[in-house]
Amino acid sequence: MINKGSIAILCGGGPAPGINTVIGTLVKVFLQSGYRVLGIHEAYKTIFTDKPCFQEISFEMADEIYKRGGSALRMSRYKPKDSEFNTKFFADNNIRLLVTIGGDDTAGTANRIARFLKSQNIKIQNIHVPKTIDNDLPLPEGQPTFGYQSAKEEGVRIAQTVYEDARTSGNWFVMSAMGREAGHLAFGIGAACHFPMIIIPEMFSKAQISLEKIIRLVISSIVKRQIHGIMHGVAVISEGVFHFLPIEEIINSGINFTYDDHGHPELGNVSKAHIFNVLIQHRLKELNLDVKSRPVELGYELRCVRPIGFDLLYCNLLGLGVKKLFDEGYTECMVTSEPNGDIHPLFLKDVTDADGKVKPRMVNINSQKSELVFQYNLQFLAPEDYEEARLILPNPEEYDFFKILDWPDPQATVE
């Protein structure tokens, strides 16, 4: 078969279930069409150096890695400057297509590279496969980012076990779920497990978010369940709340942090669940509530699990979709697959702001799904609970879910 040139694949950011499925599909379909397939290790870190780190991927390797978790290509968050760009790797290997698997930064860098190469009379296409367990890339409504469903499945498995521990031991657990800015994972896991309290940044659309409000929401749920004679439970909180908390409030929380060169607390060095749990424990003691709670962090445990059936099929379609868009001449776009399997390009220019930054997709707090979960799944104090709650709390009004969030009480609206 005539060699038509090479395609190069790289993976940026953090891992997500399904990366190897995308790689495996890409390798098989492009080898079948007469292309070499080069897998770049460490994303953008070495391709502009004298010794780029890459390997040629065979059909056998693709077949072997297809169902695995993690990534067969080592990943990196390295973001090269324009001044680092050169043409050597792309010219030497006759690269016709650069496929990037990652988030918005990975896609944006690929676009910069393609424009640079075009200015040097080297024409390549670049197509991005949107990946993140956070589900926060702005894909069309109803389309998850690949990896989210598998990560949620593993999160639910762990969360259900934690809930059984809470029931068995008579304790509460304070769980933190990964999510960058958005609360998709925390919401999805919490709703699937019927957790009595879910806290995500999107809830604070009407009220300024604060650690104090987060503490009160958890205690609101604790007391509500005590009224019903239930002394255990789990509250899940999205780590995304930290993106919206004032730095001063985090610093003054009483938690010991290490600090970076700019004086910002290094949140990555501390369990978010530990932070919330310590603050909640302090408040429980102040209120003389004999409730034990324990922290559980959901993060790195979710990123490299084997993809479930949903992501195996979805990532296969995305890989095949890259070939379809490549053959049709598309470039500087993301590949998307509708729920019915139809493939479409999504151009980055259509989902970026004036500064070229991709705006994250947040949980639609006004959707019917969100409204139903928050109104009927959660357990918290409302005005009808004040009388009974006053036997446990001196000031139940301060722990009223709707007052904390400045939401209208739907029961009051009905009346």
Topology:
Elements: E1 6-11, H1 19-32, E2 36-40, E3 54-56, H2 59-65, H3 88-92, E4 95-102, H4 104-119, E5 125-130, H5 148-169, E6 172-177, H6 184-192, E7 197-199, H7 211-227, E8 233-238, H8 241-244, H9 247-251, H10 272-286, E9 293-298, H11 309-327, E10 333-337, E11 343-347, H12 368-377, H13 386-389, H14 401-405, H15 410-414
Parallel strand pairs: 1-2, 1-4, 4-5, 5-10, 6-8, 6-9, 7-8
Antiparallel strand pairs: 2-3, 10-11
Helix pairs in contact: 1-2, 1-11, 5-6, 7-10
| CATH homologous superfamily grouping of the largest domain | Phosphofructokinase domain
> Judging from the principal axes of the Cα atoms, what is the shape?
elongated
- The beta-strand count equals 11
Mean pLDDT: 93
CATH architectural type of the largest domain: 3-Layer(aba) Sandwich
How far the N terminus sits from the C terminus, by CA atoms, comes to 75 Å
Low-confidence residue ranges: none
- CATH fold group of the largest domain: Rossmann fold
Domains, number: 2
Largest sheet: 7 strands, mixed
Per CATH, the class of the largest domain reads: Alpha Beta
Structural class given helices, strands, pairing?
alpha/beta
Q: Count of helical segments? A: 15
Structural overview:
The protein starts with 5 loop residues before the first strand and ends with a helix. It folds into two domains: 6-147 and 307-350, 3-Layer(aba) Sandwich (Rossmann fold), CATH 3.40.50.450; 149-303 and 381-414, Rossmann fold, CATH 3.40.50. It has a seven-stranded mixed beta sheet, sandwiched between helices. The chain has a four-stranded parallel beta sheet with strand order 7-8-6-9, sandwiched between helices. The chain is α/β, with parallel strands linked by helices. Strand 1, helix 1 (19-32) and strand 2 form a beta-alpha-beta unit. It has helices spanning 19-32, 59-65, 88-92, 104-119, 148-169, 184-192, 211-227, 241-244, 247-251, 272-286, 309-327, 368-377, 386-389, 401-405, 410-414; strands at 6-11, 36-40, 54-56, 95-102, 125-130, 172-177, 197-199, 233-238, 293-298, 333-337, 343-347. Helix 1 packs antiparallel against helix 2 (59-65).
